[in-house]
Amino acid sequence: MWVRNCWYVIAWEHEIPADGFLARTVLGEPLLAYRTGNGQLTILEDRCCHRQAPLSKGRREGDCIRCGYHGLKFDAQGSCVEVPGLDKAPPGARVKTYPVAEHNKWVFVWMGDTARADITLLPDNFSNDDPAWHYKPGYMHYDTPYLLICDNLLDFSHLSYVHEKTLGGSPAIAQARPVIERVSDKGQRGLRVTRHVPNVPPPPYYSKIRPLSGNVDRWFIYDFLLPGTLLMKSGGRPVADAPDDLSNAVQLHSCQTLTPETETSTHYFFQQAHQTGRGDASVTEGIFQSLVAAFNEDKDMITAQHRNLNADAAMQPLWMDAALIQWRKLLEQEVATEQARHAAA
Amino acid sequence: MWVRNCWYVIAWEHEIPADGFLARTVLGEPLLAYRTGNGQLTILEDRCCHRQAPLSKGRREGDCIRCGYHGLKFDAQGSCVEVPGLDKAPPGARVKTYPVAEHNKWVFVWMGDTARADITLLPDNFSNDDPAWHYKPGYMHYDTPYLLICDNLLDFSHLSYVHEKTLGGSPAIAQARPVIERVSDKGQRGLRVTRHVPNVPPPPYYSKIRPLSGNVDRWFIYDFLLPGTLLMKSGGRPVADAPDDLSNAVQLHSCQTLTPETETSTHYFFQQAHQTGRGDASVTEGIFQSLVAAFNEDKDMITAQHRNLNADAAMQPLWMDAALIQWRKLLEQEVATEQARHAAA
Amino acid sequence: MWVRNCWYVIAWEHEIPADGFLARTVLGEPLLAYRTGNGQLTILEDRCCHRQAPLSKGRREGDCIRCGYHGLKFDAQGSCVEVPGLDKAPPGARVKTYPVAEHNKWVFVWMGDTARADITLLPDNFSNDDPAWHYKPGYMHYDTPYLLICDNLLDFSHLSYVHEKTLGGSPAIAQARPVIERVSDKGQRGLRVTRHVPNVPPPPYYSKIRPLSGNVDRWFIYDFLLPGTLLMKSGGRPVADAPDDLSNAVQLHSCQTLTPETETSTHYFFQQAHQTGRGDASVTEGIFQSLVAAFNEDKDMITAQHRNLNADAAMQPLWMDAALIQWRKLLEQEVATEQARHAAA
Predict the structure, then answer these.
(1) ipTM above 0.90, yes or no
(2) CA of B289: how far to CAs of B197, B210, B252, B266, B282, in Å?
């Protein structure tokens, strides 16, 4: 169950080499991404229209891609411009191209109707490219369906347990009830989750950012937007400080996004940014390492959950599932809308 | 095709740690076994009723298990006694529990109707816990269906070939026809196999127990009981000795049992005991190593057989299949009885 | 889609040991090949008629095979001649045997109706066993369907791209159109492909055979015969030499054949022979190493193609597919003929 008419992140900008290309599968479709001589990003289906060999087994020739099996050559518009032994390629010979966008260090691909591709729908992942923020970019591959990872990101009560010794540090996170709202401004569709956790010990990984001796008030305020993008402000402030005094606070901004690779595997792109001037490169590295350690805790749990799923067994709904349930409804609505539109066309 | 209303061995007693737990799948159901503070064994379904994460990814908290994903806590009766953020857990929230029994160092789980669990049906695996007998406990995992291993244990003619250089030592074992009888006393259901093999060389592994220079008369007398438990007296006596003179004999008792893990994998618990006073720890170790070597010969053959099975090819019935055929009938009858009872309920 | 009534290569002669046997699966059937005391090759189904264990887990006993599970013994005609514990084996107890032929170092098995086995249908793989030719025999295992490798061998345009730095060396190979003819003399059924490539640089691997400084005229003339055997004359002659002057030419003969192992895996037997006197053992080894390097290039491409195949995606037919298309028609006709014959019988 995938929404197609939205922007999926296919790569961090730096993953696409200047001269070569990147091959990555999105929604089960093999894609090849590269940058032409004038800097324009291009995404082609990574499957030659002749015998279905991956074009990524071939090579760049200027702005074109030459298939490495029988030598067909395709331009950046997907048209076959050369077939060995023919004066002219057959007019219909081409591979599919996909709308592409670059926005704050993320490269996006539009997997739905080309006519609907709309760059105003790109998420506000500002901290990926803002001099006020520092981070190290992350990527992780999951061998689980994307929806199980959405579930994880929509319910931070797991921080108290999965991340007890990393991002969590207190059972109070799981006890604090978040406010969940529907987000639909500027065409973005998703959920806003706001969780305040007063008077708790600073989580273990804060020690890498800023040593805080007493308890803190923590907050997590994030949008989780279609197709699976988390944009979050989070932080902690010493309880003794006035509510508007952030001078001793830890303040973070995080951009994370999930892109289904196949029905049972997922790409995960993420960063957690700290404010420039609040620490040097070792702080940036420390946050990154803490995040990777914590995300491996998630991966371990979600992978075990995935293997343990039994379609015949029930799931007991609980209050902390509120966002998960709304998210599944939202996905179902979007998919139904797309299918109805498709059937009408 | 599994019988459910019977005791399956889930573990050797020593496999269940004092403070932690053991996770093991039986008949396709993930189980978690642990011992409460008062020593009582407990078996819970290893699948949280909330989002199906394995409870074994969580932790013990006293006599309870805390799920490591969202922190639900379950007591030893399977009831959810805590949900983070709720004053009281929902009344129906619970995981399944299973009847459990300890008997002579084996831990048993009852996979059928709880009301039918009956400890008088536990097998007479006495040598597992008898000061007159010494052994080293064994466990082996098979990636083949349980029934193929039952076949192996029900026909010892394979000792002459699979175990020619270990437990066998003579083609005469395969030539000797066993007596096969139905066992049904004390509620136990199964087969009794009695095989005498006169005047053969002692098998290679006897050298680790007691060097015997001339030929011996060997015997194998065992019950093979539902669900898949072998209880055997075996031994060999110098042919020159009087029939009732066991002073120079090798005498062994063996307890072995098969527990299906999934449709295509199996747990195998086993020991071969020798009489106390008939050799020291090096004899115990020698017998164990010989048994492991021999059981790896079985595993190698059965795994190859499993890969080679062709449902379209016939199997030529032979006299040595008599016990296998009776066993399959017994299993079919039991399964049919259970299904009829289930349909009536 | 396999033709059954033809000779498949199961092994190079040297792969069948004097005293043991070779186990290899052909068309999904496990086979066991061995040589009896008088030198006669024998192929049995590698599956005991009793409990389907592979006979190859057993052992040779003279000209017989003893099953390693329960000791049944089979002679070279597949008859069970001994069952432990029986005076006489049951009359119907036997394993299937297959017609076998040896021809120029290849061992062939007939997978169709025994009555139709006809040694006049063996291919003319003369250079496998001709003192005028030298080669080193090769074998490679593919985890792809056989038909994708047939496609590769039926269209040498890929030499320009897959083998650019090994067997190819020029885009002109892909541009040169071959003549494709149906072959059906002497009962052989297949295609003849004749391709001349004038005035191109010698391919990189010629340097291992005979350094040629200027351009050459190259030729590839081969039959591709059922079930998947390539018999090829190829070579190159300095363009300055007269057409009938081969004194400075590279001349090669190659025998290659594909045998399906399963629906998705394939055996590949091959050699590329050079003329005796045209180089010593280091030339033979150099050609072999070049061939293996090139065939690994094929395997890499075909494996990637296989993973990338999408049954819902179209394939654009091009001129270079002419032989592929004819080959598929030929296979379909043969299979249809066999099925009609089978239905009539």
Answers:
(1) yes
(2) 24, 15, 15, 21, 10
